[in-house]
Automatic annotation (TrEMBL), chains A, B:
GO molecular function terms noted in the UniProt entry: DNA-binding transcription factor activity; transcription cis-regulatory region binding
One Pfam family linked to the record: LacI
Key words, A-Z: DNA-binding, Transcription, Transcription regulation
UniProt protein name: LacI family transcriptional regulator
HTH lacI-type domain mapped to chain residues: 2-56
Domain of life: Bacteria
InterPro entries: HTH_LacI, LacI/GalR-like_sensor, Lambda_DNA-bd_dom_sf, Peripla_BP_I
Native source species: Ornithinibacillus halotolerans
Amino acid sequence: MVTIKDVAKISGVSPSTVSRVIANNPRISEETKKKVRKAMKELGYHPNVNARNLVAKSTKAVGVIMPSSTNTALQNPFFPEILRGIGSVIHDAQYSMYLSTGETEEEIFKEVQRLVYGSYVSGVILLYSRINDKVTDFLREQDFPFIIVGKPYDYETEISHVDNDNFKAGKEITNHLINMGHSRIGFIGGSRDLFVTRDRENGYLAALDEAGIEHREEYKIHTEFLKSGGREAVEHLMSLDTLPTGLVVSDDLISLGILSMLEEYGIRVPQDISLVSFNNVYLSEITRPALTTVDIQIYELGAQSAKALIEKTQNKNEPTKRIIIPYKIVYRDSVSKC
Amino acid sequence: MVTIKDVAKISGVSPSTVSRVIANNPRISEETKKKVRKAMKELGYHPNVNARNLVAKSTKAVGVIMPSSTNTALQNPFFPEILRGIGSVIHDAQYSMYLSTGETEEEIFKEVQRLVYGSYVSGVILLYSRINDKVTDFLREQDFPFIIVGKPYDYETEISHVDNDNFKAGKEITNHLINMGHSRIGFIGGSRDLFVTRDRENGYLAALDEAGIEHREEYKIHTEFLKSGGREAVEHLMSLDTLPTGLVVSDDLISLGILSMLEEYGIRVPQDISLVSFNNVYLSEITRPALTTVDIQIYELGAQSAKALIEKTQNKNEPTKRIIIPYKIVYRDSVSKC
DNA sequence: CTGTTAGCGCTTTCAG
DNA sequence: CTGAAAGCGCTAACAG
């Protein structure tokens, strides 16, 4: 391995000068800079990040924590897309990204502890938000820089997060259904433990309220995220005496399953039932029918969270931020007039 | 930050003893071990990974390189799934995982150089395999431990890789179609730059040959991966005077698009056309019809590549390995007799 | 079984 | 504008 000393020797200066050249210290003459850089190139010198981190007592690296992966929920294209967004900003800032996956909550917790205590990273991005989350509590207690993608369960004003206005989006997309003449509208969501589900559902309810439409408990279904492809949800629906004519589904991937089940029952979308959902992942444009869905700008969620986190790692006094990424409804073919 | 010295002081031993306790060196008495561990717990001590890596001149970390992300191909659920597989092994081995995403090939190349030269990682997993890939060449020249998921373009016997037998899988799944009475069988694949496409296609061709079915150039379509949801592919198909009755599609996600387009043209699957594909990602069971597809065991691909890489980082003389993950055809509803 | 010492590669005062 | 020296936290001979 070629070190700073080798470069120093070759270019006839001291190691400290080389170090300054690396940092592009203005107090070094252009001449020596040139000389040193030439030597670096010749030798193929690259600074050793561990040595550097050791003295800097900090790491230009962030940890990205995926939700626990016991189920297939991780197969959601949401994740690669948000990683892309994070990666882009990370890369521009010359940071690196540690990815942490884990089967169980406990495993994840241990892993985060390791990342934090071992000085692996100088900040953490949580790709989920759950109630009573040990990881969140730990990070807060440690006063360690972190960002939640989504809405924190507690201490909302103390934890920086980047989120969509899921309430408003839920309301708006439900209103779209209402405006199209629907009044019997159902909601199918993933686990209520996830805040995003709640927010979208609450938006849905608010839209009904405003329109003077009564809630029907039997129209609200929570299916385990991705489990059984929405089979239970649709079976439940079928057991009802009057079917809804519109469906608000909290995730494109769930919609895909619902669409499939609905067809099995001979129910056509959008002729018999209209359906709207959330996320606008790639596949939502290639389903039949193509989905009218809320584009939540996943890439941007990732990019902004990385940006905010990096700022925070660079300045501990950075204030707590809430960053709301605007959404946009994408109108396609899954809705018709009622 | 609490260091090894603090622990030493509290427990009344020297730093090196503490170090030995951490490494669970057998030459330390159980008594002192207990004493030291107690102090570590009290103080909340955790070893600093940078200091450790610095002296060890190695890093228990691997870099995972995603393909360039100019298109939406990354939204393929393949990726989160393979990351899960890698993560699991990484975690058990107490390693960490650096994730590298990049827009362009050049960006990725720079990033890999950084990871390697800067001693960020001690091995690399490439989640793609492309012809004339600078990254592969670089890693080879550096004699840096790395694994390709897929088949290397060149130096196949020198580069460890984990792959499926895509040729055989392609042949077998095509045979399934043939056994069901089909003889006009088309192939729709992603970019031919990707080896996986070629292998699957060659398997398809071999099956035709064996069955004495002539190739038809117009039945082989290469659509840019995911682009336009297979629209061009299906349009091309429609322009033909005689349609195929069976379709081998190289990726579940492409199948989804094809399914959708076919429906648009009023062609029913499997009644009018049978369709088989590859990967068996979650969504392939919730499409309509559910897909008959090759389960390539994505998770296992990830896990085995991580395992092989870790072995290689721990023993430079580990021989070059080719690891073939068995596949399994999952029969569902997208095929019917012809 | 344990302590002393040197040093990993780099940055950063402090001198000059 | 540049060099010498100290030290980041840890490990690994080498002594004892």
